[in-house]
Amino acid sequence: MNPITLTTVAEPLIRQALAEDITNEDVSTASIMPDARPAAVDLIAKADGVLCGLDVFERTFAILDPETRIQRFAADGDDVCAGQTLATVTGDVRVLLSGERVALNYLQRMSGIATYTHRVAALLEGSTTQLVDTRKTTPNMRVFEKEAVRCGGGRNHRYNLSDGVLLKDNHIAAAGGVRPRPVRARDRGGVRKVRAGRGGDRCRGGHHHARQHGPRRDGGGRRVHRRAREDRVLRQHRRAQRAGHRRPGHRLRVQRRAHPLGAYPGCVHEAPAHAGRQNR
After folding, report:
1. C-alpha dihedral over 4, 138, 265, 215, to 10 degrees?
2. What pLDDT, in 10s, does the model give residues 157-186?
3. Is 17 left (phi over 0), alpha (psi -120 to 50) or beta?
4. How many Å is the Cα radius of gyration of the chain?
5. Average pLDDT over residues 187-191
6. Does the predicted TM-score (pTM) go above 0.90?
7. CB-CB neighbours of 53 under 10 Å
8. Which of 136, 146, 168, 193 is catalytic?
9. Do 142 and 159 contact (CB within 8 A), yes or no?
């Protein structure tokens, strides 16, 4: 994780998690370990997968005691095997016992999401389809879960509602129509125009910021994307045999080759960041 993001965004959330787990003191540890004593523990993988969250794991112990040290034998994004030693943590045994659950919760969840994302991304190899996440994240876990998606080979879509205009069915229903709305949204949000044709809207970067998305039809089923002039068309639940059909004047160019996931290369697949399973 980016060190600035880790300090400014992730660390306050880690502190909240520690405060949730230790309201006054760790009474179990304090009852048998009243004084400081040096100790070292090994972090061992219990299952095969993609490792993610070592920075968060280390910062959790450092918050409790800055003198805690960690020696890493693997890095985020590495494929790890069951039984592999990933790191060794050295410090006050009381800190290691009190912080292990929170540290492991982050590491297990992030590694689980990264592993799941990697499996899905592997199905897309050889195509132009890109795997991106959504805002359907666990509350107060977005920075961690989106980092895990990226670590597993996916790409980050909007981080929050301030990153770009995306008009969906509920917006259309509330506004009473979609045609005039993208232009107003573009003017209000300062959204830059991105051409959708000739590969110009294929999202080559790791983030999809400052782009205007819109549905293909309005509430009455009328085609609206050309007049509304949104930069992208969000397609969902489309069959492979229909996805590649191109009508005259349709500016969004797609390939007609079917894909194993049942969609077409060049479209956007959403992999919810909360879909990963924790390693056990």
Report:
1. -110
2. 889 988 877 777 787 788 777 555 555 555
3. alpha
4. 23
5. 51
6. no
7. 27
8. 136
9. yes
Indicate the pLDDT class of residue 235, thresholds 50, 70 and 90.
low
Quickly count helices (H) and strands (E) in the chain: 10, 9
Residue 98 · residue 236 · CB < 8 Å: no
Q: Is the pLDDT of residue 49 over 60?
A: yes
Q: Spell out the alpha helix ranges (H) of 39-189.
A: 54-64, 93-123, 142-151, 169-175, 181-189
Task: Look at residue 173 in the predicted model and tell me its pLDDT.
Answer: 82
Contacts (Cβ under 8 Å, ≥6 apart) of 133: 145, 146, 149, 154, 155, 156, 157, 270, 271, 272, 273
Distance, CA of 25 to CA of 172 (rounded, Å)? 51
In terms of DSSP H, where are the helices of 124-244?
142-151, 169-175, 181-189, 225-228, 240-243
pLDDT at position 6, please? Answer: 95
With a cut of 50, say whether residue 256 has pLDDT above it.
Answer: no
Catalytic status, residue 46: no
